[in-house]
Structures are given as structure tokens and as C-alpha cells.
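Incident review: delayed structure delivery

Summary: a single-chain prediction request sat in the queue longer than the usual turnaround. Root cause was a stuck worker, restarted by the on-call engineer. No data loss occurred. The affected request and its eventual output are reproduced below so the record is complete for anyone auditing the incident later.

Affected input:
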Amino acid sequence: MRFKGTYLLLAVLALLGSYLYFVELKGAEKKKAAEAAAERLFSFSESDITEVSITGVNGSPMVLQMLPGHPDTPYLITEPINTVADKGVVSGLVFQLTHLKSTQTVDENPSDLTPFGSDPPAHSVQIHLQGGNRDLLLIGGNSLTGQGMYAQVGKTVYLIEGGMGPYFEKSLDDWRRKELFGFIPSNVKSISLEQGQDLIVL
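Output delivered after worker restart:
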């Protein structure tokens, strides 16, 4: 009889453990995942982006083109000049856009954007995607606490963290690739120096 009671107790504990795992813990994980997905402003991935255009209040756009098939020059600047973009800077921007989250939904359909610094917006970010789709991000002013900035997607105004801010303050020189050549030093097999009739091969 004592063994029977032990088996019954173990069965009850097993049922409680199963309930805790499948109902409580799994439910909490699903809720957390859903909340994380809801915070993201955009659903695209880095490989979906083909072009990003940033326009300030002065109306001069900075257009960045993505060429993932070209490992040496994966990012180009097409406006205001045609040149190779800095890989680290542009990849940082792409990461910020794909992981951009709202910390708060401020107003789903504001009648006046002036309080958010979005009339007109301080910066307009147009994101071109594979298949011809586009997303638009409008950046307003900083929040009252200075801990974030206002951003508009569609008609909704959100409060986002300030990670995007430094990218709007960069000059053309910041966006351009600094190296004259894009090769990897370890791939160099030889160097030829020519001066007049003299040729030196290293």
C-alpha cells in the first residue's frame, strides 16, 4: 500500500510538472516572443534591402545601394555622388533598421505632428526592398526626456531609442569608403613599382 501511495504521489508531481512546462513556461515564452515581434517596426531582413535613401530638411538625399553579390563593394553611394560606401557604417545602419523597435506607441493617428517634431520631419528614410516594395520611416524630434526620438511609420507615431540618431549626423565623408583600394592584404601576391624604364616587382 505504501508503494501505491508513492506511485500516486509521483504521478501527481509528473502532472504538475507537465502543466508547469507546457502551460506556464511555454505560454510565457510565446507571450515574450509575440511581444518582441510586436515591438519591431519593420518585418524585413537585411537581405531584403536593396536601397536606402535618407533625406534631411534641406532636401538633399543620401542614397545608398546594396550589392550583396559583390563582396568587395557591397554598398555604394549613388547620390549625391557615385562612389563606394564605407562597409562598416552602412552595415550598421542596415542593422539598426532591421532591428528597430518602439519603446512606446505615442499616437496611432495624430491630427497634429508638430509636438513630435515631424511637421516637417527632421529626416525621411525610404527603404527599398526586394520585389519593389518600400517602407518609409519619418524621424521627428527628441523626446522630452532626451532618451529617445519620435518616429512615424504609416500614420502611427512611436517613441524609439536613440541608436538611429548618429546616422543622421554623418557627413558625406563619413559615408564614403576611406580606403583607396578594397582588396584584402592577405590576398596580395605581388606589387609592381614602375618609374620610367625601371620596374621593381615585390
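Verification: The longest strand covers residues 134-142.
Action items: add queue-age alerting; document worker restart procedure.
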